[in-house]
Amino acid sequence: MESIIAVTADNIDREHICCAISDKKGDTCVSSKKAWMKDRFADGLVFRKLDARGKVFIEYIPAEKAWCPIEAPGYMHINCFWISGQYKGKGYANQLLEECIQDAKSKGCCGLTVAASEKKRPFLSDPDYLKYKGFSAVDTAAPFFVLYYLPFSGNAPVPRFQDCAKRGKIEEKDMVLYYTNQCPHTDKYVPVIVNLAKERGAKISVRKIETTGQAQSAPTPFTTYSFFYDGEFVTNEILGPAKFEKFLDQYGF
User: Fold this and answer.
1) Which listed residue, 23, 146, 200, 251, has the most CB atoms within 10 A of its CB?
2) Which tens digit of pLDDT belongs to each residue from 228-248?
3) Which of 191, 162, 163, 161 minimizes the C-alpha distance to 177?
4) How many of the other CB atoms lie within 10 Å of CB of 93?
């Protein structure tokens, strides 16, 4: 079994970040994500991954610094937790989660939090696995987000989503996209859908979240990527050209 290593400020320039191994010509996927990570290390960001060329990793940060509108004092927040392909079913998820738990305990945290949903959805952790490992649903946000937590003691405070993120609605009309560089693929695909919208004569507004404060006051629990139309939340799934064109066709653009 390959070992688990941490990506740190010392080795990030030579280690891959799993969900994007390397940039293709003209892409900025890896560089944008690594720049975001470098800025977060001082906030306590931890990225642990399998020492192999695959998507096997967990990323977490103290909840007070998480790019998620939650109130979870003393918790460690899991940003992303992913095991894919040939590495599934080999115990790596258990190993990564246990290392996260032990690290959080060693830092004096009172538990873990993670934003997911009631059923498995793209870009969100598997709720069945979370519940199997002892996580409980503690709060919800429209339309389908669920905040799960794993307290380390019976007197740990109960975390919650901030009110700003619970409605699944915004005041702005037309298409509005909130995103960050927390996922390497946003930097590639956001310009793609912006250009497609312009070609169709459709109005789209992009709200790039660039600070912790902006993220913690966002109108969505999933600040990495949240797409709204006419004030209603549509999806947290990063839209490529085919899916976005389908959306444009559906709404007559």
Assistant:
1) 146
2) 999 999 999 999 999 999 999
3) 191
4) 20
